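Table 4 source record.
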Amino acid sequence: MNKNYVFVVIGIILAILVTSSKTTSDNPFDFEETNHESTVYLVYSVSCPHCHELAEYLQLKDLSVNIVPTANGWAIHDLLALNGITWNYGVPILVGISDTVMAVEGYPSESQIQDGFFGGSDFEQELCTSQNGVLIGEPYEFCKLPSGFILGNQHAIDHIIDYCTENVCRTV
């Protein structure tokens, strides 16, 4: 067999593999565009490990909302302030806008998450009360902080996604 022929075949196979691999992304912030009625915003930083954890959690869910990721926090800064939510620019934040503005700040890393909570349910409840937050749910699901944010955990993320699935959350 001719060497040039072998190199051409190998080149074609490599080109096909490279082209097909570009159709799927390893970037957790690339969410599939959908035509869902509701939209939820994910504000993140590429260098933030907690942002990656949250994005990966969202990627694993069967979502009935559009996720719009943005590294531009200024896009929703004024909206949060107008709704009494004090933001110190920490990321990640997940925001749903309906009759009310709901925003989750933070998300546990893989080593911090226990049963969907930051450090476990008991630890998170103590953290919440020490920050003068309000415990939500019976049994406990998440914490509403004095800043207006909800403390980030899987239950809080699911709450916003579920709320925006049932009630249309709009774009900014």
